[in-house]
């Protein structure tokens, strides 16, 4: 795994809160609408992260699964 | 079944022997774990009660089996903690599977600073049996009446009259307070027409208790195995863990479309069990199919009728918050009701039970609903997120923490509620925190706390005079206590082992007295001091 990926759990102690929010955002959406929501969310979060090395590492890790 | 339920005898109550209508400080409906624990807690405060139960034996089937640390600490205060610890199975190793693959495992190391482990597995019938035995220690304070069914109630100016039906005839008795501990289908709640609504889950779950002489695990150490998408049936999840007497609990999540009666038949159950545990000897001990609701009453205190445990709130079983939540209700209510009945506090103190335990119930419902939602994805996208979390969990710690097969039940903090003083000390534990245990030279701190208000002072500089009616407990050079509570600190501890107020050494005695007035529910008087 790329060394640019932050292995710390940065969501803790709000992981469950985040997951509930995320599921609530998808509640009632058709699958395509959900996919579109995910696309927008990834783009916004990428901008929040900002750092291109971190983003490259994240894309590599996600694609490797 | 491997466990033979003791049958308890019907005894003719005094009301049916011509002694007229009995009057009791407290009448408790239901002799389950909550009702019996309630009677014992009140008896420890010197309060007399009568328990009325329509049945004559302890729980049929293992039912609630996971008892969390805080619950064990409460049961220890009530006098059955050691028996539970001795008989119960303390598991350490947990393994989580996604399909056939093990995603991760963990080892719950015991905390040497605490007498009680994170939790033990023990069948509900043992807990109830221990409570029945403990009740026998209070023959003058607890009147436990089997096969006495409450069928109606009348609320009067100074109490409640209950109508009771028995095989030898019907009678009335009166009580200053009635505690409804009659479970999730509470009949008194239904007769009072109280709304009990919440989220209902469509999934069915199949519980099987299996008796197996040889453990399915690699070693003798008891483990807990949890599967998402188990390879051995079509449902979403499965759980295997050990109870005493070589009984293993298997929970299978069935789809919403399955027929529960069909699924509970031995010809359905036995092949599935074989797929989980392989080719070894076993006997089916108990099978139950259930679905569940997360719901709570809008108010737990209705004048002189108070709801405790499942009659007040129900949760899904994930995270073991049903029985554990109910025992915390008992812990919270016992000392308050005793203080009101002894005239040491105004009835308004009971409103704090409502405030604090509704908060606890909301937290339990939130956590168990989250676990249920994680385990039962409602849409294709939810299922994809769930699978993505499991996929990343093998090497990314944040994803591991998102995996939710039930969050361990921790007691909630009561910080910010009416009885607790504001958090002003810059260090130490915050008011509202349940007291953590600590090792002493000759025992455990929690065994020294409870029953009455205690002023806990730590360190040579912290010597303070306890207000009248408050017991003093002082420690110096006690590393176990200092590690948990800090040095040169002063705490006012409630009879239910929660911190009501925290001060640094050197605080003036007026502040401690104010905190005590507040903690006994007399906030209106506080300004007078």
UniProtKB/TrEMBL annotation, chain A:
InterPro entries listed in its UniProt record: DUF2783
One Pfam family in the UniProt entry: DUF2783
Name this protein carries in UniProt: DUF2783 domain-containing protein
Highest taxon above the source species: Bacteria
Organism: Sneathiella sedimenti
Lineage, uppermost ranks: Bacteria, Pseudomonadati, Pseudomonadota, Alphaproteobacteria, Sneathiellales
UniProtKB/TrEMBL annotation, chain B:
The UniProt record lists the keyword Flavoprotein: yes
Coiled-coil ranges (or none): none
Positions of the FAD-binding domain: 24-367
UniProt cross-references to InterPro entries, sorted A to Z: FAD-bd, FAD/NAD-bd_sf, RIFMO-like
SUPFAM superfamilies (UniProt xref): FAD/NAD(P)-binding domain
Needed co-factor(s): FAD
Keyword annotations from UniProtKB, A to Z: FAD, Flavoprotein
Endoplasmic reticulum as UniProt keyword: no
Record-linked NCBIfam families: PRK08132.1 (NF006002)
PANTHER family per UniProt: BINDING MONOOXYGENASE, PUTATIVE (JCVI)-RELATED, TRK SYSTEM POTASSIUM UPTAKE PROTEIN
Protein name: FAD-dependent oxidoreductase
Organism of derivation: Sneathiella sedimenti
Taxonomic lineage of the native organism: Bacteria, Pseudomonadati, Pseudomonadota, Alphaproteobacteria, Sneathiellales
């Amino acid at each position: 795994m790329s060394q640019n990926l932050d292995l710390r759990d940065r969501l803790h102690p709000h992981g469950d809160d985040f997951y509930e929010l995320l599921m609530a955002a998808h509640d009632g959406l058709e699958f395509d609408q959900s996919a579109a929501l995910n696309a927008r969310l990834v783009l916004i979060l990428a901008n929040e992260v900002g750092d291109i090395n971190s983003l490259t590492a994240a894309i590599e890790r996600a694609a490797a699964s | 079944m491997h466990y033979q339920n003791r049958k308890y005898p019907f005894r003719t109550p005094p009301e049916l022997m011509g002694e007229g209508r009995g009057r009791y400080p407290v009448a408790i409906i239901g002799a389950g774990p909550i009702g019996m624990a309630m009677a014992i807690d009140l008896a420890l405060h010197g309060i007399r009660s009568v328990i009325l139960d329509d049945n004559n034996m302890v729980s049929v089937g293992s039912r609630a089996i996971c008892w969390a640390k805080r619950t064990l600490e409460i049961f220890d205060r009530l006098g059955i903690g050691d028996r539970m610890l001795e008989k119960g199975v303390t598991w350490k190793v947990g393994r989580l599977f996604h399909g056939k693959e093990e995603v991760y495992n963990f080892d719950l190391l015991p905390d040497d600073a605490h007498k009680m482990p994170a939790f033990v597995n023990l069948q509900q019938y043992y807990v109830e049996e221990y409570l029945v035995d403990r009740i026998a220690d209070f023959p003058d304070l607890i009147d436990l009446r089997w096969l006495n069914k409450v069928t109606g109630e009348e609320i009067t100016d100074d109490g409640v009259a209950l109508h009771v039906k028995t095989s030898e005839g019907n009678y009335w008795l009166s009580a200053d307070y009635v505690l409804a501990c009659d479970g999730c289908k509470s009949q008194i709640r239904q007769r009072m027409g109280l709304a009990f609504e919440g989220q209902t889950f469509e999934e069915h779950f199949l519980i099987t208790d299996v008796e197996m002489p040889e453990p399915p695990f690699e070693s003798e150490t008891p483990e807990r195995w949890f599967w998402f998408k188990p390879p051995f049936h079509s449902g979403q999840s499965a759980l295997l863990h050990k109870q005493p007497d070589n009984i293993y609990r298997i929970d299978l999540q069935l789809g919403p479309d399955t027929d529960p009666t069909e699924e509970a038949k031995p010809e359905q159950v036995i092949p599935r069990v074989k797929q989980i545990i392989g080719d070894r000897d076993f006997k089916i001990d108990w099978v139950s199919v259930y679905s569940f609701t997360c719901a709570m009453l809008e108010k737990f205190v209705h004048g002189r009728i108070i709801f405790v445990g499942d009659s007040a709130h129900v949760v899904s079983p994930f995270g073991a918050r049903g029985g554990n939540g109910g025992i915390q209700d008992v812990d919270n209510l016992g000392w308050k009701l005793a203080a009101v009945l002894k005239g040491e506090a105004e009835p308004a103190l009971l409103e704090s039970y409502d405030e604090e335990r509704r908060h606890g119930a909301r937290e339990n419902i939130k956590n168990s609903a989250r676990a249920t939602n994680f385990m039962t994805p409602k849409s294709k996208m939810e299922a994809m997120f769930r699978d993505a979390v499991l996929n990343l969990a093998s090497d990314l710690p944040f994803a591991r923490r998102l995996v939710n097969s039930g969050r361990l039940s921790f007691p909630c903090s009561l910080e910010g509620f009416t009885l607790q003083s504001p958090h002003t000390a810059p260090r130490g534990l915050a008011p509202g925190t349940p007291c953590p245990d600590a090792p002493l030279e000759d025992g455990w701190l929690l065994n020294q706390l409870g029953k009455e208000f205690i002023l806990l002072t730590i360190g040579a500089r912290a010597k303070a005079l306890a207000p009248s009616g408050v017991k003093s407990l002082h420690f110096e050079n006690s590393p176990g206590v200092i590690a948990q509570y800090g040095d040169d600190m002063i705490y006012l501890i409630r009879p239910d082992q929660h911190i009501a107020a925290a001060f640094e050494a050197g605080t003036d005695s007026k502040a401690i007295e104010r905190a005590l007035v507040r903690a006994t529910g007399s906030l209106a008087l506080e300004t007078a001091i």
